[in-house]
């Protein structure tokens, strides 16, 4: 089990306070409790991974959605820019700032055909935790909440899922929420970085597949 230095704890507490007030009451599934779940899951995964730096994991988890491209005109660098500014203001060291910002740059899903494997152990852990929150019972709820917030249709049987080859294609997409399961959520279990993450993802994935089967059966009046 790793060790978190006193000065890191103070910094983490300050970051948590800022993020909590920024995300309180958000309605698209990117609320404070998403951030808090990602932090807790990331720390739980990290406790099973040899050598993970827990301060970096916790800071990156707290900051991973601070300025998500989905809410910043598709700007994939907005998150690390805002995080760098906040960490500087709160007095973080250079090493922590660089490592955390790199994780934020690498965390997001960018389409089925785009390799988004993180380059650090801590990045892999935070990405797994974020992706776990996009699948399973909570993932289903978040997908419909996000879809609604963007004015997307829940489902249209005439629209087929798209296999996005580039981030540009993925960004431009206006998928129905049910298609989003096929374009992203059902792919995640095969892209987990850690053993613990993969195990949790498998169970959540089965639940999502059962849910979709039931959704489509009810749609056709079969159940
Ligand atoms: P990521 O950084 O991998 O995109 P986030 O933590 O920002 O992950 O969460 C993305 C959330 O938004 C997920 O729960 C996902 O289901 C939802 N989402 C993204 N795009 C869509 C979409 N087109 N339709 C429905 N939900 C979506
Ligand atoms: Ni997230």
- The averaged pLDDT comes out at 96
Main β sheet profile: none
Would you count the extended β strands for me?
A: 0
In N-to-C order, the SSE pattern is: HHHHHHHHHH
Shape category: globular
Bound molecules: adenosine-5'-diphosphate, nickel (II) ion
- Residue ranges: pLDDT <50 for 5 or more in a row? none
Strand content bin? under 5%
The proportion of residues forming helix, as a percent range, comes to 55-70%
Structural class: mainly alpha
Distance between the termini: 49 Å
SSE order and pairing:
Layout (H helix, E strand, L loop, with lengths): L5 H18 L8 H15 L7 H10 L14 H12 L4 H13 L14 H12 L3 H14 L17 H6 L4 H9 L9 H25 L4
Helix pairs in contact: 1-3, 2-3, 2-6, 3-5, 3-6, 4-5, 5-6, 6-10, 7-9
The chain binds adenosine-5'-diphosphate (ADP) and nickel (II) ion.
Nickel (II) ion (NI) binds next to helix 2.
List keywords for this structure.
223 residues, binds nickel (II) ion, mainly alpha
Describe this structure in words.
- This protein has 223 residues and is an all-alpha fold.
- The protein contains ten helices and no strands.
- The model has no long low-confidence stretch (mean pLDDT 96).
- The site of adenosine-5'-diphosphate has 18 residues, from helix 7 and helix 9.
Brief account:
The protein has helices at residues 6-23, 32-46, 54-63, 78-89, 94-106, 121-132, 136-149, 167-172, 177-185, 195-219.
């Amino acid at each position: 089990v790793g060790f978190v230095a006193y000065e890191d704890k103070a910094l983490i507490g300050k970051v948590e306070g800022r993020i909590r007030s920024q995300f309180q009451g958000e309605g698209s599934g990117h609320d404070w409790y998403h951030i808090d779940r990602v932090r807790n899951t990331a720390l739980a995964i990290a406790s099973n991974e040899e050598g993970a730096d827990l301060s970096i994991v916790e800071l990156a988890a707290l900051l991973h959605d601070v300025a998500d491209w989905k809410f910043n005109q598709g700007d994939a660098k907005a998150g690390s820019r805002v995080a760098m500014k906040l960490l500087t203001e709160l007095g973080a060291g250079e090493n922590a700032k660089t490592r955390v910002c790199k994780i934020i740059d690498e965390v997001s899903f960018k389409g089925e055909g785009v390799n988004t494997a993180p380059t650090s152990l801590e990045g892999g852990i935070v990405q797994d935790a974020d992706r776990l929150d996009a699948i399973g019972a909570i993932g289903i709820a978040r997908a419909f909440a996000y879809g609604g917030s963007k004015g997307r249709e829940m489902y249209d049987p005439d629209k087929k899922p798209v296999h996005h080859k580039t981030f540009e294609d993925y960004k431009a997409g206006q998928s129905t929420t049910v298609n989003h399961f096929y374009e992203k959520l059902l792919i995640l279990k095969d892209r987990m970085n850690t053993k613990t993450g993969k195990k949790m993802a498998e169970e959540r994935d089965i639940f999502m597949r059962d849910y979709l089967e039931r959704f489509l059966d009810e749609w056709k009046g079969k159940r």
